[in-house]
Known about the structure:
Elements: H1 2-25, H2 29-41, H3 48-60, H4 64-76, H5 83-96, H6 100-111, H7 118-130, H8 134-146, H9 153-166, H10 169-184
Amino acid sequence: xxxxxxxxxxxxxxxxxxxxxxxxxxxxxxxxxxxxxxxxxxxxxxxxxxxxxxxxxxxxxxxxxxxxxxxxxxxxxxxxxxxxxxxxxxxxxxxxxxxxxxxxxxxxxxxxxxxxxxxxxxxxxxxxxxxxxxxxxxxxxxxxxxxxxxxxxxxxxxxxxxxxxxxxxxxxxxxxxxxxxxxxxxxxxx
Length: 190
């Protein structure tokens, strides 16, 4: 009977996490708050995944205040932040136009020993593109490659769109050539 109760609890938790994410994507924060309150009332254990979904929902709409509050709450409960957490926070600051906070988030990620992987670099590159800071975007892209971290198709798409916005067709051509070489070498799937 005990294992059945655990299974039911984990299914309810998974469903609640999914529903929080769905409400967040639809910008239905009142419904999201209701589900969060329901989880607290039933004493569902909050996991990194739960916090990430809530942080992501606020980040997607650029609600830095609630995103920061949730992140601080996560840290107060000694929940370990992961790469997704920091990608969401970086995205949230970029969406809120708080680009100066992107840098401090990257520094905090390093302090927490979050691996510098494709996802983290992609989030920073995207933030630079949103800020129209193409010099910093290029610097981060170079650093990414210097650290043997392979860009993915989405990374290239972000950069191409940033260059397209500025009419920098020579840069787009160079990126497309680089991307095709990586595909030919099997280092990137199209």
